Amino acid sequence: MSDKASPFATSRRRLLQQASSGFGGLALAGLLAEQSSHGSEESKTDGGNGHHPAKAKHVIFCYMSGGVSHVDSFDPKPKLQELHGKSMPVSVERTQFNNNGNIMASPFNFQPWGESGLEISDMFPNVGKQADELAVIRSLTSPVNEHAQGNFLMHSGFPFMGHPTAGAWCSYGLGSANENLPAYVVLQSGGAVPPHGGVALFSNGFLPAQHQGSILKADKEEAIRNIRGVDGLQAQRRRLELARVLDSQFLKNATDDPQVEAAIANFETAFRMQTAVPELCDISDETAETQQLYGLDSKDAALASYGRQCLLARRLVQRGVRFIELSCLTRGIGAGGAANPWDQHSALEKGHRAMATQVDQPIAALIQDLKRCGLLDDTLIVWAGEFGRTPFSQGSNGRDHNPFGFSAWLCGGGVKGGTVHGATDELGYHAVQDKCQVYDVWATVLHQLGINHEKLTYRHGGRDFRLTDVHGNVLHNILV
Fold first, then answer.
1. Looking at the 3D structure of the chain, how many domains does it have?
2. What pTM was estimated for this model as a whole?
3. Which 3 state secondary structure label does DSSP give 12?
4. 165 phi and psi, to 5 degrees?
5. What does the pLDDT look like over 399-448, one tens digit per residue?
6. Is residue 337 part of a domain?
7. 276 vs 59, which has greater pLDDT?
8. In this structure, what CATH number is given to the domain that contains residue 407?
9. From CA 147, how far away is CA 468, in angstroms rounded?
10. Domain boundaries, position 289
C-alpha cells in the first residue's frame, strides 16, 4: 500500500464538521472519558491520584473582589487607634489615586474568638465563631496595585490574561469525580458579574478546553443557558447512538488533536449536564433548618443570594466537583462597583459592613455544614481578595489599595485551625514577618490536593508552565 495519503481520507476536524451537524465525534468521548476525567499524561500525576497522599479532594474559592481591608477584618492594629488622625510616620508609597489622608483607625472592633483566641473584627461575627477552623495568612503581598492585574495574578499566578487559572489547573491535574458535571464550576447569583478581567479569570488558557470554568447561575430557573436542549434528551441520545456507528471508521483515521478531543469531551459532558444540573439546583430536598442556616430565608436579598451559592457549593462537593468559585454581589454602597464590590474608596465602614453582612452568615454556614456532613476534612476553603487597603484614609472615610501587606485565610482540608501565618508592621502597611505571595497560597492548595506544584506543568510556546510560575513555597506551618 502506498504511503501517500488517500484523497478521500478525512481528518477528525473535517468529520466533526460534516457528520450530524458536528455531533459525529461525540461517542468517541466514551472512549476518552477515563483519560479526560483524570487529566492527561502531561499532568504528571499518578492516574489523577496526585504525587503524594492528599489531605483534600475539593477546593471552594470564596473570592472577595475589590480588595477587603485587612486592618478592618483579620489583622487587628491597635496602633491605628492610638495614632488616628495623625500623619503617617513612615514614607508613603504611591497609591492608585494619590488622594492620601492621615492615619485612619478601624471603625470595627476586634475581639478574640474560640479557644485559639484568633482576633477577628465584628464585621464577621459568624465567621468569628468558626475561628478555630481558620488559618489566617496576614503577610500576603502582591506586585500589582490595580484590580484587573490583581485578579489575574490571584487566579492564575500571572497579572494578565491568557494563562490557566487555579481551577483549570486543578481540573487538569486531577479531573472530576463526577463525569456528569465539570471539574471546575463558577457560581454566580443576584446579578453578580465577573471581577475586572471578565470571564478570562475562569479560563483554561492553553490547557485543553474541557478544563475551563463553567459558569452556573445559582438562582436562575435555567442555571446554564440552553441546558434543557431544544428537542429533548431522547433525540440527542439517538444522535449519539448514530455517532457510535460513524466513529468505528472515525477512530481508524484518528490522529492526536487535543482541540478536537477537548470539544468532544465538552459536548458529552454538556449532554450529561442536562440531567445533572437541574437536579443539583433543585434544593427542595434540603431541610428548612439547612436553608435557614445559609440565610436563604433572609429578607436581605444579597445575603440570601450568596447563601444559595454556598449551599450549592456544598452540593457540588458532594457530587465530586473538584474546584468551585463563589462570586460576591454588588451592594451599590460606597465606591465599589459590580465587578469590585469590596472597593470602598469612600464610605468604607458602610460599604464593608454591607458586604460582610452579605457573606458572613453563608460562609460560616458552609463551614458548619461541611463539617457536620463529614466533608470539611477533605474540602479546602480559600478566602481572599486581590490586595488589602491602606492604614491611612483616602479622602475622609475611605481607603486606597494596599498590595504591600494583606490577609487571606484557609479552612478545612488538612489546615491547622486557629493559627496565624506572618504579620504586617504595627500600622498594617507592609508585611514584615514570613512574607508570602499568591504563589505560596496555590502551592499550599495543590500540596493539600496531593500535587507537587513544581511537577504540575504543561508545555506551551516552548517552555513548561505551571500555576506557581517559577515561585512558590508550601506554607507547612499552617498545615496539620
1. 1
2. 0.87
3. helix
4. -90, 170
5. 999 999 999 999 999 999 999 999 999 999 999 999 999 999 999 999 99
6. yes
7. 59
8. 3.40.720.10
9. 20
10. 47-231+283-478
